[in-house]
Amino acid sequence: MDYLPIFLDLKDRSCALIGGGEVAARKVRLLLKAGAKVIVYAPELGGILAGLVREGKIEHKKTAFEPLLLDDCVLVIAATDDKAVNRAVYEAAKARRIPVNVVDQPTLCTFIMPSIIDRSPVIAAVSTGGASPVLARLIRARLETLIPAAYGRLARLVSEFRETVKQRFQHPEARRRFWEDVLQGPIAERMLSGQEDAAREALAKRLETTATTSAKPLGEVYLVGGGPGDPDLLTFRALRLMQQADVVVYDRLVSPEVLELVRRDADRIYAGKERDNHAIPQEDINHLLVRLAKEGKRVVRLKGGDPFIFGRGGEEIATLMEEGIPFQVVPGITAAAGCASYAGIPLTHRDYAQSVVFVTGHLKDGSVNLNWKALAQPSQTLVFYMGLHGVTDICRELIHHGLSKNMPTALVQQGTTRHQRVITGTLETLPGILEKTKVKAPTLIIVGEVVTLREKLNWFRPSAPN
Ligand code: SAH
């Protein structure tokens, strides 16, 4: 290891900044964030630093550098464009054993500044030891996505309770277990989803019950939208919850690649929903979720697309609500958005469509029961979910209620996945084309002028054979 990473407490300590230009200004921001008392030594100041002086945030000494200036400070940064001055700062700091950083001159540094992710009080720092600042930045960007913005607040909540927990659990092992439980469970999750008061309450309650009884705490249900298939389209929150789950209850629509991202040792329960062949009736799914949560499990109810769009998510959480089970709903990219993007068909367009309607094409008892008149409107895009079996009726009714038989129409099969396939035609021709084609579920039907844009905008070329 070339450097020892440490975190310095600079609150109200004097730090010297030699140089008054833009490079110096960039360093000041971090020093101020850490609460340091910054004194800038420079004959002239640039605009940013001059502004900070006016606001009383930093002190300015209009003087050339000399070693004595460093006598009272705990840290020095040199950012002048004069090589001799930079070297003199380095020598003077070294003689006084004060940590020194000369910007962009690694050989004149006794410390270097890492790339940081600031979720104060949580701070993560990344350094490549000067080998590649760009790489450090890229690593930082990855960490940014892994460390939710609310971790700072979570850490503060923990510190509020730290002393009480210490008193309650004398044994360090018991303490560690308590905190692991809190930080990986529903309490932390509540904090991360912005429900700070609820998290504080639950933590206080957990503290009470853990000490007095051994009863299992209530679990929690996460109703998670898994998106249309491509695992890259999951939200960060969906992924985080999937990786904490004790058990996942999933639908047929959830792609294997998405399911793959659920925590390895979570139990997997298939809830089915093939057409007319529901593996578990909806009623039973609702109760299954309740039972699992009552066993203290963290349950991810994973659904294709978005849970609140033709997903019966509303029914499932109504039961949870009745039973007093805590839950969260995590939105997902719905099939219409995913398929349209990946098929190069914008759902609205200034020239072609001012509105878009998501419709279910699942026809109860084989009869068509939709408001066709409202659907068959100009300048409107229609997206039919679950429409494959009714496609002939759908196209016929739309023509019958006034849409042109030449209206461009597309069917997107297994959208956003490697198996995506798009079949285009018109309201008149598509049913016939589909009769002669082997189509695999799930499929989405898009009707509207916007379908023609695909000729220009198609960008996604899936690699797998169908
Ligand atoms: N909640 C889901 C929809 C569930 S209804 C969502 O928001 O996307 C099931 C229907 O969604 C399927 O019949 C099909 O019409 C559509 N669908 C879901 N994923 C799809 C995909 N990858 N490609 C095409 N259609 C899809």
Can you describe this structure?
The model has no long low-confidence stretch (mean pLDDT 91). The strands form 4 sheets. A 5-stranded parallel sheet has the order 3-2-1-4-5, sandwiched between helices. Strands 10-9-11-8-12 form a 5-stranded parallel sheet, with helices on both faces. The chain is globular, with a radius of gyration of 30 Å. With 466 residues, the chain is of the alpha/beta class. It is built from 17 helices and 17 strands. Strand 15 and strand 16 (421-426) form a beta hairpin. It is 36% helix and 18% strand. The two termini are 51 Å apart. It has helices spanning 22-33, 47-54, 83-95, 133-146, 151-168, 172-184, 186-192, 196-212, 236-242, 256-259, 282-294, 313-322, 335-343, 372-375, 391-400, 430-435, 454-457, and strands at 14-18, 37-41, 59-61, 75-78, 100-102, 115-119, 122-126, 220-225, 247-251, 267-272, 298-303, 327-330, 355-360, 380-385, 408-413, 421-426, 443-447. Helix 7 (186-192) runs antiparallel to helix 8 and helix 11 (282-294) crosses helix 12. The longest helix has 18 residues, at 151-168. Residues 228-229, 253, 303-306, 309-311, 334-335, 339, 385-386, 412, 414-416, 442-444 line the site of S-adenosyl-L-homocysteine. S-adenosyl-L-homocysteine (SAH) binds next to helix 13 and strand 17.
